[in-house]
Prior knowledge:
2 copies of one chain form a homodimer. By secondary structure, the first copy, chain A, is an alpha/beta fold. Chain A is built from 9 helices and 14 strands. Chain A has a domain at 4-183: Acetylglutamate kinase-like (Carbamate kinase), CATH 3.40.1160. Chain A has helices at 12-16, 18-30, 44-51, 67-91, 130-138, 161-172, 205-214, 221-233, 245-248; strands at 4-10, 34-39, 58-59, 62-63, 96-99, 107-111, 123-128, 142-145, 148-150, 156-158, 177-183, 202-203, 238-242, 255-257. The first copy, chain A, is globular, with a radius of gyration of 18 Å. Chains A, B: This is Acetylglutamate kinase.
Amino acid sequence: MKEKLSVVKIGGNVIEDEKALDNFLSAFSRLEGLKILVHGGGKLATQLATKLGIESKMIDGRRITDAETVDIITMVYGGLANKKIVAQLQSKNINAIGLSGADGNSIQAHKRPVKQIDYGFVGDIDGVSSELLKNLLSINLTPIFCALSHDGAGQLLNTNADTIASEIAIGMASVFETTLYYCFEKKGVLLDITDENSVVKNIDTSKYKELLSKGVIADGMLPKLHNCFHALDNNVEKVCLGDVSMLDKNTKLFTTLKL
Amino acid sequence: MKEKLSVVKIGGNVIEDEKALDNFLSAFSRLEGLKILVHGGGKLATQLATKLGIESKMIDGRRITDAETVDIITMVYGGLANKKIVAQLQSKNINAIGLSGADGNSIQAHKRPVKQIDYGFVGDIDGVSSELLKNLLSINLTPIFCALSHDGAGQLLNTNADTIASEIAIGMASVFETTLYYCFEKKGVLLDITDENSVVKNIDTSKYKELLSKGVIADGMLPKLHNCFHALDNNVEKVCLGDVSMLDKNTKLFTTLKL
């Protein structure tokens, strides 16, 4: 039987709020078994850019990453957010180790080709070094990923943290029974966006198609759910969507996705 | 017989200069055998602080590290400098992994007690996890340390990179035949500060005392040489001081220190 592994992604709004982050990291530290954390940096990068007088350019909610911006993201995601999370987890007896995709060549990517839009230094993932992660986990380390990959030619690349989480889960699924958790501000997929408790508890492939056709899954949930089913299609055991209480298993109000 | 290990510290002036950094990293990548790199961030932290309107306070050349400043150092040393070095080494076929002292609990420290001066969030090192470093080296990873330690209670601490390098060398000396390299802008310890080629090639304990009494070792070289002999007194095989050409062994003009 395969050993269990949890891959947990936290949303930017948790990173921005000191108390929420501490709560989350406590819940994460209590999670049993092997685990990997993935985080972005939320609005912290935009805030630093603003202070430095650098304009943040967004198209359809995606950041245009020029040379100055990739430096800011490296500072904020790879430095401030990542090292603070690592230091705080150490104080909670988790032997955390912070990684970008360049560290240990853990996430290989290529710069997104320019079509209609030039996204700049944005990475599309080619592969994850599951061998490295297996080795780190085997010596009791807990990898903490920021949202950076690299092109192998010396360039760091801004990379969507949801995608990093699903690609890591996929990369590990051949070795571990892998559960992917997307932790965010909502309790799960909501039937009625105005009712926080209208959580759809279970979604399988046919339910997913039904919710898509009814328009229940829309806007920001579309790429999120796409990532979830992409992971399930590639041997990830299950995907859970919900707020921090989902990790502590002291609520049954979250969404579980299975094929 | 013990396996050989090189611990290399690079000076801030190399980090600040893109071409010099590339030259250095090429020389480092050609260095045979197991190796560990330690770097600070030079003036980059001061530059970012200035841009953000935060005053850099120095006393006797040492930075006073308040809460805002430790965040800046975490961004610049732990983020920008560390991840760029790691990405560039990956392009030179070195499987680099960037670490602060919090990552893998690799460098344990305590906040320097306040006596005449309150240095703020500055760390004095208590120990190095040689077991972790041995494990990382054994899976073909090359650790790249920035100048940050942690207190185990969630706080990152600004820590002198020369001291980190010597403490790592000392921590590894029981397992490896360890050489400590201090790479800086000079060719070594100079007999005459105005003559770049007046390098003292070999310094042992008695020569060290002679140079100290003659005032040849003064100012910034005093703590540097103190670090070197502290390492030698604690089982480090030898210490070399010089510029980048020392690493390539294409010069004999550098200083070697042995007991």
